[in-house]
Amino acid sequence: MDNARDALIESWLAEVDVGMSDEEVDNLEEEVHQSESEQEQVIPGERSDESSEDDLPQQRRRRTDFYKGVDDTLWAYKRTKNGVDLVAKMCSMYDVARNSRRWSLTIFFRLLNLSAFNALCIYTANRNYEPVSRREFLIDLSLALMKLLAQKRLENKSLPRTLTIRIKDFLGIPIGLSFSIRNNVC
């Protein structure tokens, strides 16, 4: 099951090439490949420095060099928070947020980003971890949400005719000839 999840995340990372350098993509892939089972369980305050640097793989060696001189509690926290960084980076790739001075709107946009990411995880889990393009999923999700709003809006009888025609076209409802014959009398 972890292999399917890792393959799915790798496929998401493969479509990330827009706006990211190769080094950033490589760093993301390194973080993904390092699962919790591969990480040695370290209790804060019990880091073993007896192991030589040569025994560690190259990736582990760079990480331990980076955390030298850091408190053990902070070191253990930073080593195990890969998932948080990955979610934050994936949410920022296809971000729905807009500049706003209203804090409530900013929170709404962040919640929308996270809920779309969670919806994608649930959707792929329901499809037996079959790879799904994140971009296509977000487009389909946004269109589904827009259709619900458009149907609700179509119930309003005081909409301008052009807007009603556009909504019907968007929803795929046939546009009937609904024009009235007026007498040209003032």
Characterise the protein shown here:
- The chain has 186 residues and is mainly α.
- The protein has one domain.
- It has eight helices and no strands.
- The chain has helices spanning 2-14, 22-33, 58-66, 72-79, 82-93, 103-126, 134-154, 161-171.
- The chain starts with a helix and ends in a 15-residue tail after the last helix.
- The relative contact order is 0.08.
Low-confidence sequence ranges: 43-47
- Count all strands and give the number: 0
- In percent, how helical is the residue content? 55-70%
Q: Kindly, what is the distance between the CA atoms of the first and last residues, rounded to a whole number of angstroms?
A: 75 Å
Percentage of residues in strands: under 5%
| Biggest sheet statistics | none
Query: What is the radius of gyration computed over CA atoms, rounded to a whole number of angstroms?
Result: 25 Å
Taken from the alpha-carbon principal axes, the silhouette is elongated
Structural class by SSE content: mainly alpha
Keywords:
single chain, PGBD, 8 helices, 186 residues, mainly alpha, PiggyBac transposable element-derived protein domain-containing protein
Brief characterization of the structure:
It contains 8 helices and no strands. It has 186 residues and is mainly alpha-helical. It has one domain.
List the SSEs and their pairings:
Layout: H1 2-14, H2 22-33, H3 58-66, H4 72-79, H5 82-93, H6 103-126, H7 134-154, H8 161-171
